[in-house]
Amino acid sequence: MRIAETVTFGGSGLDRQAPLRRDVEGLGRALATGLVLPVWRGKPLIRDGRPHWVAAGHPVLALAGPPVFLGLDAGTPRFAADLSDWSPEAGAEAVQAGFFDPSVQRHPAIGEEAGFAELRGVMTALDPREAELVATAKALVQWHRSHRFCSTCGAPSEMAQGGWQRTCPACGAQHFPRTDPVVIMLVTRGNSVLLGRSPGWPEGMFSLLAGFVEPGETIEAAVRREVMEETGITCGPVGYLASQPWPFPASLMIGARTEALTDEIRLDPEELEAALWVSREELVQAFAGRHPVIRPSRKGAIAHFILRNWLADRLD
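RESULT FIELD:
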């Protein structure tokens, strides 16, 4: 798939400068001249639909944790910092649970011009470099927040290597950021594609089937297993299409295609609320907003990317 890396959060060629992560003094100099993206409980600081970077000494970072080094952006050092310990003032818009959180939290040190916003709401407006930086920042910040204790001995661990490692001072164990591999499948049979719907999704939204790769399993086996488990459909050979870092919280979506060998759907209600075969003509209607039942997956998601390119015959 020649256009694979044009997916949202696709590679922009960020210079991640792995050697600099080991240079404590060099990181200090980089921070003094670089820019920091504050992240609050998974939400990056956004201004006019784009990430809002601040200098290392900015007052908004007063309660932030140690900065995480992201890389060099055209020579400018970029960092991220977790501001989750800050509590919005009374009366601030509250975080809303669910598929998408539309609330925005504004910090008094920034004012009204910027706020902490859900990345899903702005991801399609970001250019490739912004998207890679913000995805990396969100994933790393959340990993540090959820892995503060050593999984070997239980003692508090410490950030190291510019944020790309945690070390345990008690037992010496080293821990590294994790990315969970997830397969997401374009399952076709003739002129139709298999779509599913998970409980809790917005009304009418359907997408490609997806699931986590299990230990000891190949990507190909995961594709066939997930489709069989969720819909009872048997699939043939599997081919790679594209991948997408998906920082919700920290997955790598591995897009694959396969041809179904059977077409009778036997739904697993614990996995899916609904599944159906959708023709190309129906999918065109859905993307145009004219289908009576189906709404397509969110723009920016790899499912949307794959389905649009399948319709345009651009997958080879």
